[in-house]
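Hey L., structure's done. Input below.
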Amino acid sequence: MDWNDLDSERTIVAVGTAAGPGLRAVVRLSGPDCLSVAARAMRAAAGLEGPGFAAVAAEVRVGRSWLPVTAWRFRSPHSYTGQDMLELHLPGSAALMEAVVGAFLSAGARAAEPGEFTLRAVLGGRIELTEAEGVAALIAARSDGQLRAAMELAGGALARAVGAINDRLVDLLAELEAGLDFADEPIRFITAGELSRGLADAAGAIARLQAESGNFESLADRPTVALVGPPNVGKSTLLNRLTGVERALCSPLAGTTRDVLAAPLTLADGEAILLDLAGLEQEPGDAISRLAQQAAEAAVRSADCLLRVADASASQPGAAWTQAGGREAIRVYNKVDLAPGPLPAEGVCVSATTGQGIEALRAAINASVFADVADRRGQRLMLNARHRAGLADAAAAVGRSRSLAAREDFDTVAELAAHELREASEHLGRISGRVVTDDILTRIFSRFCIGK
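Output:
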């Protein structure tokens, strides 16, 4: 999409809440003539016009009837987009939402493109581009880890860090270019040594930001966790209990599970995929059983975490541990509600039937598969691929400028050093949105939903 073709002076309208029925829905409008457009489709006892923020009791014409709504008015420049805005709160009926949006379209608004409200906030200087990415990440967050990282991004932490580095580069560039403008005069705005020290500081700041930040994409990775153990130890019941989904067929008959069953497992720091496998110690009696064993063995080899499940109610609960290919695993004793004696001292003791110990098992799985996330909690930021590429390009340009500043004939290559400094500043500007290109906008806002 060519974002320059979007008319930012035209009032846009869209549903701002998730699709489907709900108790409440929000319809949003934004534009310089937002209130006059709204007035053609609405009536309000106190009037929609007025200063500042206010909640106005109003009605929207729907066919031949009037629908009561609450209209929240946000005046420019203190709204989300920086333009005049209205948010209408109404019953969450899909038919009503469609009718209300249609009323505003008939009154002169146009349908918003995906992410256009946030795009207007960026173009209007209300938020930085990285903060817009944080908004998209907040909408898509599926775990506490993703939510924390998205909130840091949306809160402007990366924009501030990058902005501080860029400000230093711009100061150096200004002094260097001033010297070039007065090259024929006996005036020195910055020496090669001062430039080298300033560039070294900037390079160090970029390197620290790279080293102290993690990869945002890693938060979206879904590791696999495999339940392994002999037949009839309750692996299928455990899968159902951990995931909250009746995914696996449970039976007291050994060998019920033949195929590899998978279900999403929500943990504190992310989402994993929990696999229920055929019993590895089961003797394959036919061709289908042999295929089930092969599928289970392949899943064990590729899994990120293994749960070795044993029956705590058995006379020797640990005697039938599966070797699981010799890999380290979390030991799980299931059916502790049926255990005749003291519980084992090692491993995690649970009952898939009653739920006993399930939260402790969740914590153990989370610590195993998201250990790197836990290690990163002290880090300030998580960077996506676009951020990392921009920092790498900026660091390379700063490095080239440093090399030029270190040359004995610096006066003859000062213009090249200034060019590299401009390159570094532009790369940082693309991260924050101070330098905006159409491909960057397309890459970011194509992931937004309409109404955001």
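The chain has a mean pLDDT of 81. The chain has three domains: 3-127, 133-212+385-433, 224-369.

-- N.
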